[in-house]
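To the team - pyridoxal-5'-phosphate complex, inputs and output below.
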Amino acid sequence: MIDRDRLDALLARERAAFVATHPRSADAYAAAGNLFGRVPMTWMNKAATGLPVYAARARGSRLTDVDGHDYVDFCLGDTAAMAGHSPPAVVAAVTDRLASGGGLATMLPTEDAAWVGEELARRFGVPRWSFALTATDANRWAIRLLRAVTGRPRILVNSYCYHGSVDESLIVVGPDGRAASRPGNVGAPSDVTTTSRVAEYNDLAGLERELAHGDVAAVLMEPALTNIGIVLPAPGYLEGVRELTRRHGSYLVNDETHTFSAGPGGATAAWGLEPDVVTIGKAIGGGIPIGAYGLSEPLADLLGNRADLDLVDMGGVGGTLAGNPLSLTAARATLQHVLTPTAFAGMIAVATAFADGVRDIIDRAGLPWSVTQLGARVEYRFQSPAPTSGGASAAAADPALEDYLHAYLLNRGVLLTPFHNMALTSPDTTLADVAAHHEVFAAAVASLKG
Ligand SMILES: Cc1ncc(COP(=O)(O)O)c(C=O)c1O
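Output:
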């Protein structure tokens, strides 16, 4: 339906416009020759405009770049700022801890940790929590524990999942239906098909086939995929996963890092799920780095009784700055004052308005696209109905169209996540923010038709 030559020309126009209106950003990028890829972290080069947005300030749902342009931010740090940028309660708690408490790197416990553990237990239903600095590490450490406790070597994930830079998770169902390393997998320590198994999301038969080998310590999954577009569970799928994991003696880990958008206790609470382990990170720190994993009581007991596992030194689980006072003070303030049940109700209502409006624009334009919502998270895809597995969703990607929409929106003050077309709402996101997106999005869609 979309003329590709026209699309290429439109994208080139938007890129040129962005560079022309962002001279200070262009200078900053040019001056960063001692950074690998000119950015502090290579992913920051994932910029539809060819030049990263250099943020000067960010508050609530708004961000201002070094060239003085304001943006409504629906990226929210790819969920790390789901609490809004610099929420006042977190700023106050962190400032107090820094200025009055001090001692940010003592490797000693603080009282905030128990409060956060109790709150996470109440929200997610698993009672024994431990902390990391990133969700990646929470996943890494959780799966080590699960291999140890089962004596089984493999981890099973869904095709095109994302759980951070976890070696075992970089596996997909290949075109021939067999497990394969994810394309682009950088410097894998071993062949991932020997450490992992993979099944498509929503495919219970495939999951059962893989679990039947009897060597899977744990299934690590997002209750809904969020990193290849949002892929929601078909009726009965998650119940089937739980039943199959129990039947085959594999533990079930819900990675709630992104599905936390479903509600105050993530998809686990919203959908009444019963995982053995919950992992999470990003948003619970209100902008300060944190990761966490929670274990069921029987699992924690089993691990606690294993004298052969070195959990207090160099056994492979833990880190010097994990569980530091700043992360936990921030998490306490975030959970107590910012990402509250009331806040979630508001965020989800605003996200629903976002989804309804986008659906309306797409329908009126007669485009065969779809919109999917997971609580405070919304995604539009260039396929209808929405894909039901990671593989199908990966196949539906249209990088040029995606880049064009992102660049068009950026040039008109709207920021989406650089990965696919994901928009997230924070407690500060308003219906006016949503209306600002819709106005620009409708114009972008209209421009495709000439
Ligand atoms: C579901 C999920 N798990 C884990 C991670 C890794 O988080 P971090 O980058 O904080 O390690 C991500 C990051 O996007 C994620 O989406």
